[in-house]
Specification:
By secondary structure, this protein is of the alpha+beta class. The chain has 3 helices and 6 strands, in the order H-E-E-E-H-E-E-H-E. Strands 4-5-3-2-1-6 form a 6-stranded antiparallel β-sheet. A hairpin with a 5-residue loop joins strand 4 and strand 5. The two termini are 24 Å apart.
Length: 116
């Protein structure tokens, strides 16, 4: 899989440090985005079957296991406390797990990072 955990960690830390608006991690047609919601907290959103027809509704249990909930007609989302390096590590691990285990994104899909 092409999602690079180190790049994800680096970009999440930059987002927190800079107070930037948001960052989008995309692997092929799938995405997970992170946005500053308040100091020390990020809002995380991952595309759901409401916006991507190839995402199976049975993935909801996997997302719930990672602390996400499914918005009515929306995407999977959660708010995360990010008080230090351990929190960033956990969040990066979760994002990689979403791409690898839940979306099962292809090994040849391009990994892209977009800062907003």
């Amino acid at each position: 899989m092409n999602a690079d955990r180190n790049i994800i960690k680096e970009k999440l830390q930059q987002l927190i440090d800079s107070g930037g608006e948001a960052i989008v991690f995309a692997l092929g047609d799938y995405y997970v985005q992170a946005a500053n919601s308040k100091p020390g907290e990020l809002y995380i959103e991952a595309v759901s079957h409401h916006y991507h027809s190839s995402i199976d509704t049975t993935l909801e249990g996997g997302f719930i296991g990672l602390g996400f909930h499914l918005e009515e007609g929306g995407n999977y989302s959660k708010s995360c406390h990010v008080g230090g390096a351990d929190d960033i590590d956990k969040l990066a691990d979760d994002i990689v797990k979403i791409f690898r285990d839940l979306y099962r994104a292809g090994d040849n899909d391009p990994f892209e990072v977009t800062e907003m």
